[in-house]
Design a protein that fits this description.
The protein has about 400 residues and is mostly beta strands. The protein has helices spanning about 1-10, 15, 35-45, 330-335, 395-400, and strands at about 25-30, 55, 60, 65-70, 75, 85-90, 100-105, 110-115, 125, 130-140, 150-155, 160-165, 165-170, 175-180, 180-185, 190, 195-200, 205-210, 210-215, 220-225, 235-240, 240-245, 265-270, 275-280, 280-285, 290-295, 310-315, 315-320, 345, 350-355, 360, 380. It contains 5 helices and 32 strands. It has a 20-stranded parallel sheet that branches. The chain has a 12-stranded mixed sheet with strand order 4-7-9-11-14-17-20-23-26-29-31-32. The protein is elongated, with a radius of gyration of 22 Å. It comes from Sphingopyxis jiangsuensis.
Length: about 400
């Protein structure tokens, strides 16, 4: 009854005009097992109509092909995410290199199932507005490997995105990645043993809070990159997270932008603007708890702005950091400073305010065309008046109602 009520709340106007109603919604239950597991599940996703629930019974699906959903206002609901009693979509034998599940429709609710060992991304949604990822697990069970899929949870080109209570492990790029999207909340989730735990890229208005990012190469990334349709990433709040022990050696394939993230990075802001990092607990990040850098790679995008702007770091708790800096020259700098560098590392580009009671090290590279090897490190005082606080993200009530 709860799901049908939630589906009614989120029912698109177009569905109402077509004569659909909550009474017409149905539950399509799919059982695991059999050589036709792929066909049964894909058929259910094709036959679903707006308002329907596709229900995954407990058990393990052995799948060889990716799945897709392009019907609006559908709930895909399993029995849980644990291996013993949950609904497990196992793609260990996947033939192609695509994602496990691709969603291209609006008002979709994904909840209570696990996706394992996809050749490509775990769960991807593209152009899917008001999508909710809730109580999901995406994992590559052999741990960190370059051959793992790039992204675990992967919404792109969307407005209104909620990632809530998901667990992602082993992604060779980012465990939870939201790109080229607007109005985003990522909360109450765990990202571990990925290259990037959580990444917000080229997006506007995002709240990342109450998550645990641990044992990744970099815990939380906020990037803006050139040559993408949506640029000028801004208004990102990273708050009340636990960001600890992100020292896993970088296992991203060569050529990926995240392959440059130093092991031991807590939060890394690159070329974004209006970013608040506050109320987080940092500990045991060997390079730095917080890094603020410009984009220092060649590009041919005349509209791209490579400098970070209006970055605020305040009211965080800082444990041990900077004892094993993994960027070029980092070990020598740490030795010259008595064995470690300060918890906040800034390359010197753009502007930032740091009001935490910790040291800040500047590499004094104000010109983003300068190579990092030309660094002239020195202590920096970035304290000062912060810009006005960013407003919090508010998602449509219909999205919040679906997880109650």
């Amino acid at each position: 009854m709860r799901v049908r009520h939630a589906a009614y709340i989120a029912l698109p106007v177009a569905a109402i005009l077509l004569g659909l109603s909550p009474a017409a919604a149905k539950t399509i239950r799919v059982e695991p097992g059999g050589v036709d597991a792929n066909e049964k599940l894909q058929e259910a996703l094709i036959l679903a109509e707006p308002g329907d629930v596709v229900e995954l019974a407990p058990g393990r699906w052995t799948l060889t092909d990716g799945l897709s959903l392009d019907v609006a206002n559908v709930t895909l609901r399993g029995a849980g995410i644990d291996d013993q009693n949950g609904s497990i979509l196992d793609f260990s034998g996947q033939q192609g290199a695509g994602e496990g599940l691709l969603v291209t429709s609006d008002d979709v609710f994904l909840t209570d199932f696990a996706v394992l060992n996809t050749k490509g991304d775990g769960i991807k949604s593209k152009g899917a507005d008001r999508i909710v990822y809730h109580q999901l697990r995406v994992e590559w069970t052999a741990g960190p490997k370059e051959t793992n899929g790039a992204y675990g949870i992967y919404p792109v080109e969307s407005t209104d995105v909620l990632v809530n209570r998901v667990v992602v492990r082993g992604a060779s790029d980012a465990g939870i990645y939201v790109g080229q999207s607007k109005n985003i909340v990522v909360r109450d989730s765990i990202a571990t043993e990925n290259v990037a735990g959580i990444e917000i890229e080229n997006s506007y208005d995002a709240d990342v809070h109450d998550n645990i990012a641990t044992k990744n190469t970099g815990g939380i990334l906020v990037f803006d990159l050139p040559s993408l349709p949506m640029q000028g990433g801004h208004n990102v709040r990273v708050f009340d997270n636990i960001v600890s022990d992100n020292n896993t050696p970088n296992f991203a394939p060569k050529g990926n932008i995240v392959a440059s993230v130093p092991a031991g990075t807590g939060v890394l802001v690159m070329a974004n603007r209006n970013v608040e990092i506050s109320g987080n607990i940092f500990d045991e990040n060997g390079t730095a708890n917080v890094m603020i850098v410009g984009y220092r790679y060649e590009h041919k995008d005349p509209k791209y702005q490579p400098l970070p702007k209006a970055i605020v770091v305040a009211d965080n708790l800082h444990g041990r950091a900077g004892y094993a800096p993994a960027f070029p020259g980092g070990a020598e700098i740490a030795a010259a400073l008595g064995g470690s560098i300060p918890p906040v590392l800034w390359d010197g580009a753009g502007d930032a305010v740091v009001n935490d009671a910790v040291g800040v090290l500047s590499l004094n590279l104000p010109d983003v065309s300068m190579p990092q090897s030309d660094a002239k490190p020195s202590p920096a005082d970035l304290s000062g008046d912060a810009p006005a606080a960013l407003p919090g993200v508010r998602l449509p009530e219909s999205m919040e109602a679906r997880i109650r």
